[in-house]
Please model this.
Amino acid sequence: MTTKERLIQELEHAPEELLEAVLNFVMITKTHQAHQLNDSMLVTEDTTEKTDGIASLLAMAERFAAELTEEELAQLPRDGALEHDHYIYGTPKRYSRETAE
Model:
């Protein structure tokens, strides 16, 4: 019997609380593995050292920015770095007030 078959057999008789815990564990593990895969993709082909994280982040941002149209650039907030909590979490702006242009 394979591991998958054994797991399915056990899950069929498990209480709902255990099923939720197992599902959460599987989802967290999959996310962790995806992050590890992304990290391993930062390794260059000719060396086993990881690419500098800041350099790779900047390169990714440059690629992203190069694909933006003028209209998309015009819609970006000018205070995004300063007011990141507002744009990420919806908190009230703390430092700046954009004026209508």
Notes: The chain has one domain: 3-89. Helices lie at 3-12, 16-41, 53-66, 70-75, 84-89.
